C-alpha cells in the first residue's frame, strides 16, 4: 500500500523546489549581467543584488 503524502511533506517539497528555482534564476541573472562574460561594466546595480538576496531572506525571517 502506498504511503500517503501529508500536507507538511507537500509544503516542504514546494519550499525546496522554490529554492532550486531561485538559485537557477539568480545564476541566470548573474550570467547575463555579470562582468565575467565580457561586459565592461555590470548593468545591475547593488540594489538588484540586495533584492535577489534580501527577498528570500526576509521571507525566511518570518518563521
Global outline: elongated
Largest sheet: none
What is the SS-derived class? mainly alpha
The whole-number mean of residue pLDDT values reads 76
β-strand amount: under 5%
Quaternary status: single chain
First-last Cα distance: 35 Å
Briefly, what is this?
Helix content is 67%, strand content 0%.
What can you see in these coordinates?
The mean pLDDT is 76. It contains two helices and no strands. The protein is 67% helix and 0% strand. The chain is mostly helical.
Secondary structure blueprint with pairings:
Layout: H1 7-33, H2 46-60
Which features characterize this protein?
63 residues; 67% helix; mainly alpha; single chain
Amino acid at each position: 500500500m502506498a504511503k500517503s503524502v501529508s500536507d507538511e511533506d507537500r509544503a516542504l517539497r514546494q519550499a525546496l523546489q522554490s529554492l532550486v528555482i531561485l538559485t537557477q534564476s539568480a545564476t541566470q541573472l548573474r550570467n547575463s549581467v555579470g562582468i565575467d562574460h565580457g561586459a565592461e561594466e555590470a548593468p545591475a546595480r547593488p540594489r538588484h543584488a540586495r533584492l535577489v538576496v534580501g527577498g528570500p531572506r526576509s521571507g525566511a525571517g518570518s518563521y
